[in-house]
Amino acid sequence: xxxxxxxxxxxxxxxxxxxxxxxxxxxxxxxxxxxxxxxxxxxxxxxxxxxxxxxxxxxxxxxxxxxxxxxxxxxxxxxxxxxxxxxxxxxxxxxxxxxxxxxxxxxxxxxxxxxxxxxxxxxxxxxxxxxxxxxxxxxxxxxxxxxxxxxxxxxxxxxxxxxxxxxxxxxxxxxxxxxxxxxxxxxxxxxxxxxxxxxxxxxxxxxxxxxxxxxxxxxxxxxxxxxxxxxxxxxxxxxxxxxxxxxxxxxxxxxxxxxxxxxxxxxxxxxxxxxxxxxxxxxxxxxxxxxxxxxxxxxxxxxxxxxxxxxxxxxxxxxxx
Length: 321
Known about the structure:
By secondary structure, this protein is of the alpha/beta class. The chain folds into 2 domains: about 220 residues, P-loop containing nucleotide triphosphate hydrolases (Rossmann fold); about 60 residues, Lrp/AsnC effector binding domain/regulation of amino acid metabolism (RAM) domain (Alpha-Beta Plaits, 2-Layer Sandwich), CATH 3.30.70.920. The chain is built from 12 helices and 16 strands. The strands form 4 sheets. It has a 6-stranded mixed beta sheet with strand order 6-7-8-3-9-10, with helices on both faces. It has a 4-stranded antiparallel beta sheet with strand order 2-1-4-5, with helices on one face. A 4-stranded antiparallel beta sheet has the order 13-14-11-16.
């Protein structure tokens, strides 16, 4: 059963094509990742699905409601956690959540119970009366997630939910997200630029580049699509034409000053490969990981600094013009 259905969704800013006709279906209870480099269109897609940005063309439904004709129903169905904190740091967690509950018309008799339940899900009950400014980055992120859950949405949008957090805190956030999807059958759509996050957390991933979906599938399926071992060579005078003719070489991809070579049984065939390759400065051999998947489909590596941390603000600034 699809909770989200997208057909040829497109967003233009003048001559700039930010999202280019994407189509996909996301199932109930699925953790779905949008992975891509800076400016790929991930955050813009989330803004359209959450009705905060009108599409130029195409259509989408969220929890059975059309984003164009039923925006209020869509908003009632979703929770949204932005990249940048949006809570009031001078208020306590309880006060922030109560304000959110009143904005969403949560029945007064249910507000305290829902706040208690939401803070319990993210392990913050004991700190509910502390000002948010006293929270660590990870605690504040968890509080923002609790706020997004307060009106019990069918769909939760998380825009770079762990950006800027240390690895340990990031993995704790993953545990909370997994628990939400499994215990509540909540559909969760997140944008991320962390390869490990996409690989370990998401049921399926769409890799977006240049506003288009260039790959879609379960992480294991996408990695399995890269056959054999990967040998990365660096050198100023690599003889790749000869390398391509070797019977155990499946593909050769050049990335700047490096060559990524897909090889059958690298342990056996590496010596011959190096003899043919010529002057090699360095060599690295490994099994395919999600970085390799990303490189294959986008032709570029992604770095932690390439997050869409400013895409939301750029998008909103353009939308106001």
